[in-house]
Amino acid sequence: MSQLDLAVFKAKFDQYRKLIGPGAFPKTFKGIVHQIIAVSQDPHASAKDLAAIVSSDPAIAVKVLTVVNSPYYGLRNEVASLSQAIALLGFEETKKIALSVSVFEGFKRKDVIELLRIWKHSICVGVFSRIIAEHLRHWDTDAYTAGLLHDIGKILLYSVHPEAARMVQNNYLYERGKVSYIEIENRFLQIDHVWIGYCSACQWNLPISIREAILAHHNPALPLQPVSSALAHIVRIADLLAISLDFPSVLSAVEITPDVAVKRISEHYLDPLRIDQEAFKEILDKVATTGMAEAANLINVVQSSVSSRSAISVPV
């Protein structure tokens, strides 16, 4: 960061602390989510490590097993333990499920409808980001995490100050697309969700590339490290695709159709990743088929987790 950047960060972080406060992170977010991401970054981590982390929170463990036993995976016999789940689905797939479920399990649910909208969008963006990264044969684990967490600023705002989040949403709708959502946030809050997300990611000590992808997911042209820039472009593409497929994070008076999204992506975000039109078509096809099916499966479990939290003991 330059001195100017540090000054901007300090000003934004001060506003973040005033608005969000130090107690915004639930125990789940500080503990199990952080540990799962740490496992993602550790090449020596084992299946046993992952099972031990997830089993430390019975409510999350139950949700993970619910996903594993869903029709999407088509397993012949019911999976009763996390170790068995990892053996059948693999370390990476189980880790992805655990992260998806645990990120959303810990937050307060004062505004369930709004939070569900953001959660659905985030899951789609995570899945689509991973598909894009897999096509590039690089960054797929980090891309999923960055996509899943890209709107964590909106989740935090709805969890801590739902009245402020509703005020931003209502004024954004009133403006009918004349100004961006981020501009409305800054007008009323003196900070926007990308900075809230970035500041929280710094507090959470996430890897720099994921922090910067969160910060730049609306503007991936920001001067970033190469990996951060790539992740920001990936998440931006996935973000636009999710919105165009009717999974927006906020209500909007401006419709982004698939055709509009494809045009915007093609004009602005493919070249930095060296994705040509033929490759982009392959990505779109995979998003529309396996990507949507995978996201829908995770979304169903997220929705089912809203009504109750389980305290069942789950075998590791």
What does this structure look like?
It is a single chain. Helix 2 (27-41) packs antiparallel against helix 3, helix 7 (112-136) runs antiparallel to helix 9 (152-160) and helix 7 (112-136) packs across helix 14 (226-244). The chain has 16 helices and no strands. It has one domain (3-307): Orthogonal Bundle (Hypothetical protein af1432), CATH 1.10.3210.10. It has helices at residues 3-19, 27-41, 47-55, 58-68, 82-89, 91-105, 112-136, 140-149, 152-160, 162-175, 181-189, 193-203, 208-215, 226-244, 258-268, 277-307. The protein is globular, with a radius of gyration of 19 Å. By secondary structure, it is mostly helical. Helices cover 70% and strands 0% of the residues.
Strand content of the residues, in percent? under 5%
Radius of gyration: 19 Å
Largest sheet: none
Order of H and E elements: HHHHHHHHHHHHHHHH
Low-confidence stretches: 307-314
Total beta strands: 0
Oligomer: single chain
Give the gist of this structure.
The chain is an all-alpha fold.
